[in-house]
Write a structure and sequence with these properties.
The complex is a heterodimer of chains A (93) and B (271). Helices cover 90% and strands 0% of the residues of chain A. Chain A is mainly alpha-helical and 93 residues long. The longest helix of chain B is centred in the N-terminal third of the chain and has 25 residues. Classes of the chains: A mainly alpha (93), B mainly alpha (271). At the A-B interface, α1, α2 and α3 of A face α3, α4, α8 and α9 of B.
Chain lengths: 93, 271
């Protein structure tokens, strides 16, 4: 499996999909503001925010599938530290 | 208001994708000073923009093999750990102390990168797992390099994570000099790898703010900024294909000096 191709695929479609949803919501909000338009914008923002984490998981899975043990270990370690940091921050902020 | 936000985020996206930076140094002060937004909300909007810039830039740079995913994953562990350490230190240390130290490091890096020629170590006869290459779209040539000094480079990323968590800036501004000047990665590979890694750093902060509802009153602002940043990043990527690597290093060092000056003025209460 190609690490660069898989990672790039997630980033590309995550960015375009998120921007498309956010832009559609923004267009609705500018013409006729409502709770629905705000929810659509928030959904687009959520897709954009989650994309780097999804690509990290895909990179880790690809490295593991390729038996690149050292780099797969770094990727899984990074996922763990990121999740722990987020949980800690959620309780601090 | 909308036009101003689009221009602001477009510039942040353009500079961010060109130099592998997030653009928070541009977005946060403008949102707080010109748009009267509170600091936490401005930081939240800025983090979402950084994720958008990183995702847009890295999607192309990773595909073209300019971003070094393996080196990025390895070093980013240090940065993520540093961010957690920074959050703890921030509870006990005045952030201006760190901002001044950080600005001094940026100034040193700026002069170092401006005055000293780039050092890239070509791979030896026997291929090792630290040897990489990318194709420079400007020259059409393959650029082969060996990454050195992993241990101290990781410490540099830990420092980047700490300063990032404490001052809200410092992702790419520290990581790029560490990768380029210390670990001997070519400038284009260093900035492209920075574009790739800053997304994951910004992700955790953006997700926390989003889940805590900090963005809720500013969701329209966030959507406008994200769209502007996306457009800027797309144009930045086109420019990146045409820019000469040595000029890029010089422009980056000037940008570092500018950022350090802004930070010092901000710490001194001048802006």
């Amino acid at each position: 499996m190609n690490l660069e191709r898989n990672t790039s695929f997630v980033l590309r479609y995550g960015a375009f999909f998120g921007i498309f949803i956010a832009a559609a919501g923004l267009l609705m909000d500018l013409t006729d503001p409502s709770e629905i338009s705000r929810t659509i914008m928030a959904a687009g923002i959520a897709v954009i925010i989650i994309t780097p984490f999804v690509r990290l998981v895909v990179s880790a899975a690809t490295l593991a599938a390729n038996k690149e043990k050292k780099y797969a270990a770094y990727a899984f370690l990074l996922i763990s530290v990121t999740v722990i940091g987020m949980v800690v921050a959620l309780y601090i902020i | 208001m909308i036009a101003g936000l689009i221009v602001l985020s477009f510039i942040a996206g353009l500079i961010g994708s060109l130099f592998g930076l997030g653009g928070g140094i541009i977005i946060v002060p403008v949102l707080t000073i010109l748009y009267d937004m509170d600091a936490k909300a401005a930081m939240a909007v800025s983090l979402v923009a950084i994720v958008a810039i990183s995702t847009t830039s890295a999607s192309s740079l990773v595909r073209d093999n300019v971003s070094n995913v393996r080196v990025g994953l390895r070093l980013e562990v240090g940065s993520a750990a540093g961010a957690v350490i920074g959050a703890v230190i921030a509870l006990h240390l005045q952030s201006w102390v760190l901002v001044i130290c950080f600005a001094a490091v940026l100034m040193y890096s700026s002069f170092y990168m401006f005055l000293r020629p780039e050092k890239v170590v070509p791979p030896g006869r026997e291929r090792t797992e630290d040897d990489f290459f990318y194709r420079d779209t400007k020259t059409g040539e393959d650029v082969a390099y060996t990454v050195n000094n992993y241990a101290t480079g990781t410490l540099g990323f830990v420092a980047a994570g700490i300063t990032s968590a404490m001052s809200g800036v410092g992702g790419g501004t520290i990581k790029i000099p560490v990768m380029n000047a210390h670990m001997h990665m070519p400038m284009k590979a260093a900035t492209a790898t920075s574009s790739y890694v800053i997304g994951i750093t910004a992700f955790s902060g953006a997700a926390v703010y989003f889940l805590n509802g900090v963005l809720d009153p500013y969701i329209q602002t966030a959507a406008i900024v994200v769209i502007g940043a996306f457009a800027g990043a797309m144009i930045g990527l086109r420019l990146l294909r045409r820019i000469n690597a040595s000029s890029m290093r010089r422009y980056f060092s000037v940008l570092l000096l500018f950022i350090a000056s802004v930070m010092l003025m901000s710490a001194g209460g001048i802006i």
